Amino acid sequence: MKLEIQNTENFIDKAKFVEYKANASKANKFLYQKNGLGNDFLGWVNLPNKISEELISDIEQTAESIRKKIEVMVTVGIGGSYLGAKAVIEALSDNFSTLKNETNPKMLFAGNNLSEDYLFELSDLLKTKDWAITVISKSGTTTEPAVAFRILKAELEKKYGEKEASNRIIAVTDKEKGALKQLANQEAYKTFIIPDDVGGRYSVLTPVGLLPIAIAGFDIRKLIQGAIDTAKNTSVEKNENDAEIYAAVRNLLYDNGFTNEILVNYNPKLSFFAEWWKQLYGESEGKEGKGIFPASVSFTTDLHSMGQYIQDGKRNLFETVISVEKTKYNIILEKDKTNLDKLNYLAGKNIEEINKSAELGTLNAHLEGGVPNIRITIPEINEYNIGELIYFFEKACGISGYILGVNPFDQPGVEAYKRNMFQILGKPGY
Length: 430
Ligand code: PA5
Fold this sequence. Notes:
Elements: E1 2-4, H1 14-33, H2 47-50, H3 53-69, E2 72-76, H4 83-92, E3 106-110, H5 116-126, E4 131-137, H6 143-167, E5 169-173, H7 179-187, E6 190-193, H8 207-215, H9 220-233, H10 242-255, E7 260-265, H11 271-285, E8 293-298, H12 307-312, E9 317-324, H13 351-368, E10 373-378, H14 383-404, H15 415-425
Parallel strand pairs: 2-3, 2-4, 4-5, 5-6, 7-8, 7-9, 9-10
Antiparallel strand pairs: 1-10
Helix pairs in contact: 1-10, 1-14, 3-8, 4-8, 4-11, 9-14, 10-14, 11-14
């Protein structure tokens, strides 16, 4: 991957940037020396290198044996126990995989909302499918996945009987704490452990993400390799590495009044990657009255909805574009005899050439409109490059949070809605 920041230069002071880069290097050292805030949640820093062959094989074998017997895998989880897997699977899948007859099981998600209609409609669909559940919760007590799991487990037992249902449930949870772990022990579910020192939003390279990604049919070894290489490239030995530079530049922009960052893609396969990124940065930085607000758009789709605001609205936005060099397939626009649609000037071009022109045209327009632009380019969407992006953004997020002066590894604000909801619902103790 390649990071380009030259289109932020008109919006930042060079001398200040040197200062911010020095802070970023210091913050990166804190991550390795474990002497910053939240240092009991730094397991992700060296994680890619520490994923054992035993764990990878166990995940692959479990995935392979369940894949053979099902049409649909329902992955139950929310937040960090959901977004990473969903982001990677969407990025790597055919846009229309749910409607195509492929050998891979269809991946559906539940427990990421409290919609009754969603659960009803899902249960209804599953009546006619051969299916299984992967239930993921680090705490093992989160309400949304627990509610969905209770409903879906009952459906599964109704369909296959209790014994076979427990062969069709895989749990990913803490090594000892939480209701899910107790249930998994009692029902003898195949279980994978989430390391204590890896928080939810940094857990995609643990079984939380790796298992569903493997079940969906993707190569987790390549994903991990991308992360391993990026861990090396963003380590403290690499002075002024991309993660430090990205963290430094976005903090300097923030201090110059650019308080909103928009992650932009020009390929709809990456739109869920932005959801993962939003959680990573929003939950890590948005605290103590501080933090860049992370937003996202998919272009060119959203140029026809959010484009006006980005071009012309309140000038507190900067963009980080994930640009993909090469598409998987090619379609050439042919010359048309009648040219009634007046598109013959594009004849002979492939669609991506038009997309890239839109990207360049948008970049220049937004720069003129006062929107600083950071660009991250990957050669193509594949497991390796997505693994690179994951680790790059995680590392930059840890550094960025430290520059901002917050603990990037806690999420105290998430409790507020839960307290109120539990009180309203009459949960004992609230
Ligand atoms: O990043 C986080 O820690 C959160 O988003 C959690 O992942 C989310 O709340 C789900 O928690 P759990 O895995 O304990 O069910």
